[in-house]
Design a protein that fits this description.
Layout (H helix, E strand, L loop, with lengths): L2 E6 L7 H12 L4 E6 L7 H9 L10 E5 L10 E6 L2 E6 L3 H5 L7 E5 L10 H14 L4 H4 E4 L11 E2 L5 E9 L5 E6 H8 L4 E5 L2 E3 L2 E2 L21 E5 L4 E6 L10 H4 L7 E6 L1
Parallel strand pairs: 1-2, 1-3, 3-5, 13-14
Antiparallel strand pairs: 4-5, 4-6, 6-7, 8-9, 9-10, 9-16, 10-15, 11-12, 11-16, 14-15
Helix pairs in contact: 1-4
Length: 276
């Protein structure tokens, strides 16, 4: 039986997540369900894409991923199911797939067409669950939809590179649970444009002349622990997803704050890398 994952902006206060899981178990009592996240900011497809992009590849091929963010059906927001990189995705056609796997072409895409037989205001529960269970039983995409050649593309989230190729201008695309701000500047792009040159990273009024590989690289372990004042140090780092991140060492949004609050760097703010 395939794994079914859930990524939504439902939160955990209301009944929505429980209802979706119950519906899956009602159709497949031996289903295996994994929650990726239900804490996505409401209707935030960029945030959703970042979370899923860095999660789905860790699941086995054939896994089925339900995306319940900005999922209400409309003439401008059709529902699709697709096979991409060996994984199935069931989601709205709002551009999220182009952000999850911009360099990978889907192997198969269909526009879901079972809505005519189902009237619903809770599409994830009544439509996406049925499609996921159909796929989990070995059903084909063609049975639940009509073939499409491509899905909606979003290009606004890509970094800008100037003509002289000495500057990358990116944007904050995600703020994590620690308040670290993650840009859309990948490690691969940094090295392709930088070509070993010196650089500085600029976030608002703050400049960084070094990008660390690990958070604790900012610590000087030669200094006795009782003499260190490391908590609260700001740093630039390539995170585990290989994106440029501005962080505060051992930050906590609920107590001391994080990079987003202490440095005033927020979603969509500019992060710039200058080479010289």
């Amino acid at each position: 039986m395939s794994l079914i994952t859930l990524t939504t902006d439902f939160g955990t206060k209301d009944h929505f997540v429980g209802a979706v899981k119950g519906a899956i178990y009602s159709e497949l009592n031996d289903a295996r369900i994994v929650d990726i996240s239900h804490q996505i900011s409401p209707f935030h497809i960029t945030e959703t894409a970042y979370v899923l992009k860095n999660a789905y590849k860790n699941f086995p091929k054939g896994s089925i991923h339900i995306i319940g963010v900005d999922s209400e059906l409309s003439v401008e927001n059709k529902h699709i199911a697709l096979l991409l990189d060996g994984h199935y995705f069931i989601c709205p056609n709002n551009g999220i797939i182009s952000m999850i796997a911009s360099e990978i072409k889907p192997e198969k895409i269909v526009e879901i067409t079972i809505h005519n037989a189902i009237i619903s205001s809770f599409n994830v529960l009544d439509i996406f669950v049925k499609v996921a269970c159909h796929i989990a039983r070995g059903g084909t995409l063609e049975v639940i939809g009509k073939k499409m050649d491509s899905c909606k593309q979003l290009t606004e989230v890509y970094p800008f590179i100037n003509e002289d190729k000495n500057q990358i201008v990116g944007n904050v695309i995600y703020i994590d649970n620690y308040g670290n701000v993650i840009s859309n500047i990948s490690k691969k792009l940094f090295h392709e444009i930088g070509k070993g040159r010196s650089y500085e990273v600029i976030a608002r009024n703050y400049k960084f002349s070094k990008i660390f590989q690990k958070y604790n690289d900012v610590i000087n372990f030669e200094i006795p622990i009782e003499n260190r004042q490391d908590d609260g140090k700001k740093l630039a780092i390539f995170n585990s997803a290989n994106y440029l991140e501005i962080a505060i060492y051992k930050s906590n949004l609920k107590t001391v704050g994080g990079a987003s609050t202490l440095l005033g760097v927020n979603y969509r703010d500019t992060i710039t890398v200058r080479f010289y």
